[in-house]
Amino acid sequence: MYLPKLIARNATRHKLRTALTVLGLVIAVLAYGLLQTVVDAWYAGASAASNARLVTRSAISLTFALPLNYDYRIKGVAGVTQVARSNWFGGVYRDPKNFFAQFAVSDNYLDLYPEFIVPPAQRADYQRDRRGALVGRQLADSYGFKVGDVIPLKGTIYPGTWDFVVRGIMDGRDESTITRQMIFHWDYLNESVRKKNPRQADQVGVFVLGVDNPDNAAAISRAVDDVFKNSLAETLTETEQAFQLGFVAMSNQIIAAIRVVSYVVIVIVMAVMANAMAMSARERITEYATLKALGFGPGFLSALVFGESMIISAFGGALGMLLTPPAARFFKQAVGGVFPVFTVSHETMLMQAGCALVVGLAAAIVPAVQAARVRIVEGLRAIG
Amino acid sequence: MSAPADPPLVSIRHLAKSYQRGAQTVPVLSDISLDIAAGDFIALMGPSGSGKSTLLNLIAGIDRPDSGELLVGGVDISTLPEASLADWRAAHVGFIFQFYNLMPVLTAYENVELPLMLTRLSRAERRERVEMVLGMVNLSDRMDHYPTELSGGQQQRVAIARALITDPTLIVADEPTGDLDRASATEILAMLQRLNAGLGKTIIMVTHDAHAAEAAKSLVHLEKGELLQGEHG
C-alpha cells in the first residue's frame, strides 16, 4: 500500500510544478481534441453522404451544367430508380458572411433523402407554393427562421433579389445529418431564368440518382457515363460520398497540416512532461538510493516514477477530455456556420486518452531507468 | 578444556577496493583484514579520504569489493547477486545516515514502517512494532509529524527507529552526529550505547569526531586505505 501512497504524495510534492505540468497537459489534450474535431467536421459532409445515391455532373467541371434532357436518358439506365435535379444557387442572405447552402431541387429530391424529415402538412404547403422553401433545423435555429418567414436572397450566379417563403423545417434523422441548408423549387428557378435569359434555362447542376442496389453503384455509374460518351457534355458519375470527398480533397493539405499540428502539440507536452519527471527524479536520487539501501528493488523505484508520471498525465488528460466538449460548443458558436457538425467523437476522446497515456509512459521511461539503475553509494553521496 | 570462541559477526580478509576516475584507478582500501564480534560497538575513524565510509559501505552490502573476502554472519556478501543482496540488507542491516535520509512525504510513523513493507507482517503487527520502536526513541508523541516538522535530533531518532524496526543483525551509522548540535549528538550517542548494551546490537559507526568515537567500545583507525590500529575503549 506504500507504493500508491508514495506516488500520490510525490505527485503533489511540488505543487506549482505539478500544476503547471497538468495545465500543459490539459491544454495539449484539449487542443488535440479540438483539432481532431475540426478534421472530423471537414469530413462530416462526406461521412453523412450516402453510398446508395449517385451524383452525375459534368465531366469537365462542376461549374459546367448539364442539359435537362439528360434526366430522361439517365432514367433509362438499368438500375436507376429515381433521378432528381439540383442546382447550386449561391445567394447572399443580407451579408456575404451569412453563408449557407441553397439548392434549387426537383420535387422528387426529398424522396431520395429520407434522412430529412419534414412534417407532411409542411411538405404539402411547400409543394403548393412556387416560391416556397424548406430550411434545415440547424439553419433555422441559427437565423431564427420560422414557417411563414420570407428569406430574401441576393443572387450571385442568378442575378436579382429572390424572395423565398419558408414553408417547412427539415429535421435530421439523427445527429450526423447536416440540416444547415435551404432547398426550393428547381422549376421556379428555371422559369425565372428562362424569362431573363432563355439560353441559360433548362440547365442542371447535378443529377442525384437513386439506385436499386448500392452494390451495383460502380457498374451503374459506368453505364450512365457510357450513355453520354463522346457527347458535347460528357458526364462523371460517382457515389455521393465520393462526390463529397472530392470537395474535401481540395483541402487535403490544410487537413494534413491540422493533423500534424495536433500531433506536434502532443510531442511538445511530452517533452515538457519528460523534463518535469527528469527534474523530479534527479532531485530524488538520494531517496532512491536510500530506498535501495533499505532493500527496495529497481522495480519498486521504476514503479514510483511511472506511477507519478501516470497520475499526472491521467489527471491532466481527464481534465482536458472533460473540457473538450464545452470548448467544442464554444468553438462552434464562435465560428458560426463554417462547421455545421462540430461534435467531439468517441474516437477523438479515445485518442485523447491514448495520447495522455502515451505521454505519461514516454515521459517516465528515462527517469524510471535512471531511478532503477541508481548506484546506492553514488546516490547517497549526492546529498552533499 | 576451554569453550571454542564465537566466530566474529563480520570477518574481513585482504579486502581491496578502488574507484575509477576517468582513465585513472584510485585505490581506496588495500588489503584490509578485520574481525568484528557480535555485540561490538566499533568506531571507524580516520581523516577524509581514508576509506572509512567505503569500508562501512562494503560491510553494509551497498558496495562491492574488488577482491578479498567479506563474511557477515557467515555469508559471503561479496558474491551475492544484486537481488539477494537487497534481500540480505533488508533483513540484516539497519542504516543510520548523517543527513537522516527520511522520506519527506512520509510521517515519522510511515518512515519507520517503511522497511517492514518488505516483510510479510500484518498491518496490526507492523503497528505494534512501529509504536514500540518509536517509544524506545521517545517519539511516541511525534509519530504523525513529517520530517520537516521535526528537529535534527528528532529526525535522527526516527532514522534510528527505522534502522531498528527489522531487528537487524548489524547497525551501520555513517557520521550519525555529523549534522547535529552537541546536545543532540550526545543524546544520539547515548541512544546507540543503550541499543548496544541493552539490546546487544552490533554497531559500526563511521565518525571523525573524537567525542563520538568515545561512545564506542572499540576504535579502528584507517589512513590512506590501510588499517592502522585497533584499540578497545
**Span between termini of chain B:** 30 Å
What's the helical proportion of residues of chain B?
25-40%
Give the helix/strand class of chain B.
Answer: alpha/beta
Q: Given the structure, what is the number of helices of chain B? A: 7
The helix fraction of chain A, in percent, is 40-55%
Summing up helix and strand content along with how strands pair, one would put the structural category of chain A as alpha+beta
The number of helices of chain A is 13
Report the β-strand fraction of chain A as a percent range.
Answer: 15-25%
Please give the oligomerization state of what you see.
heterodimer
Characterize the main sheet of chain A: 10 strands, mixed
Radius of gyration of chain B: 18 Å
Provide structural commentary.
The complex is a heterodimer of chains A (384) and B (233). By secondary structure, chain A is an alpha+beta fold. Chain A has 13 helices and twelve strands. In chain A, strands 1, 3, 4, 5, 6, 7, 8, 9, 11 and 12 form a ten-stranded mixed β-sheet that branches. A two-stranded antiparallel ribbon of chain A has the order 2-10. Chain A is elongated, with a radius of gyration of 30 Å. The two termini of chain A are 31 Å apart. The relative contact order of chain A is 0.19. Chain B has helices at 52-60, 82-92, 108-113, 123-136, 152-164, 182-199, 210-213; strands at 10-21, 24-36, 41-45, 67-72, 75-76, 93-96, 170-174, 202-206, 218-223, 226-232. In chain B, strand 4 and strand 5 form a beta hairpin. Chain B is globular, with a radius of gyration of 18 Å. Chain A binds chain B through residues 1-2, 5-6, 9-10, 13, 286-287, 290-297, 376-377, 380, 383, and chain B through 57, 60, 62-63, 83, 86-87, 89-91, 95, 97-99, 101, 103-106, 110, 114-115, 117-118, 162.
